[in-house]
């Protein structure tokens, strides 16, 4: 069974995907980390995000350490959104994600294009949303907790900019798959969002 979880920044898709993976005993991949690792590589070299060639080089020399705090920093988020628009970068990361989705027991993946590009045949697709303001509050709190203090206006502006860029790019834009289940978490806390997601998945599986 493959569960595809997509949605915009700080919608809660990662939290939900991890909880679903635990609940159903499946391995989980946060695909945003791949793009963040490319961005971090590029940033550390002082590479130019406007150069597809340099971004692709950063992709080929990927070394992902998920515990690296800098992966979640605001500059890296911005660069991740920029480099993820390059078709060559997306192509270079495709196989790793599809191999993960294709493992025998199934998997949960979260990102922007899991239900549309990476695993279009996934048994269950969830599209997780929340208002931009709610998402900015969450992201600011998260950054605060990691000792990165960013003004609310700046976090909100980044969320808007990333929504716009991720949705309008030509290569695998952020959009809801036609057969996705929609979950708006604006008014849900973490536990409520997780329960709602588990319920949606179980209902879908019961119908299949
Ligand atoms: O956690 P958050 O939603 O803020 O970001 P993320 O999921 O870690 O993704 C960082 C950036 O990578 C996003 O802004 C997207 O541009 C890009 N991304 C993508 O293009 N495709 C994916 N499957 C996952 C992330
Ligand atoms: O993966 P994505 O960027 O979509 O979001 P996340 O990392 O799952 O969630 C971003 C932050 O919002 C985390 O600190 C979550 O604990 C928090 N969150 C929340 O406050 N309420 C929810 N319903 C879901 C997540």
From TrEMBL:
Keywords: ATP-binding, Cytoplasm, Kinase, Nucleotide-binding, Transferase. InterPro entries: Cytidylate_kin, Cytidylate_kinase_dom, P-loop_NTPase. Its main location: cytoplasm. Transmembrane segments: none annotated. GO terms for molecular function: kinase activity. ATP binds at residues 7-15. It holds the Pfam family Cytidylate_kin. It is an enzyme of class 2 (transferase). It catalyses: CMP + ATP = CDP + ADP; dCMP + ATP = dCDP + ADP. Its EC number is 2.7.4.25. Residues 3-202 form the Cytidylate kinase domain. It is found in: Cytoplasm. Belongs to the cytidylate kinase family. Type 1 subfamily. This is Cytidylate kinase. It comes from Sphingomonas hankyongi. The gene is cmk.
